[in-house]
User: What shape does this take?
Amino acid sequence: MQCGVDMQFLWRSESHFNLANLFTMVNITCGLLATYFITQDAFVYAVILAWIGGAFDIFDGKIARKFNLSNEFGVQLDSFADFLSFVLVPTFFIFQSVYAELSGIPLVVASVASIYYVISGLRRLIQFNINADAGEVAKYFTGVPTPLGAILLWLVWLGSGFIGWMGVLALMIVIGALLNSKVKIPHL
Assistant: This one.
């Protein structure tokens, strides 16, 4: 009599719960928890969770390619995770930690810049999915990939005490534009 659970679904590319997709789901979980901690002004926990999510994002693709687990569901799931963890979380983080004290016209301008960044990130991910083949990895990204955009936003936040909210706003707009630029970024 066998009393173990059949874990073959972890190794089947057609499974929505294969190992690569489970890593992506951990990234999503980290993004959701980071969002919660941002609402609680617990920014250190939010940053830690965002970086853990980023680590899982690196490994989900590597696992999918190594074990031939890539599928269309995984491509879409990964883009959703990227949107949450690398677009919404850093934008919300900057909004809560840098723009929270603004009011009037400065708050409206910061809101528009944040919405611009979110739409730029979403557009980039949609275009990536349209052009993507499951399991294929291009030598270069065209435009700044959203994980790199998130890292750049985290660096902007680290310098926010020196550049002020207007510097953060300007750099957020520049990074948002770079997401959909023709800049070639080597795939690591």
Notes: The first strand starts at residue 140 and ends at 142. The chain has one domain: 8-186.
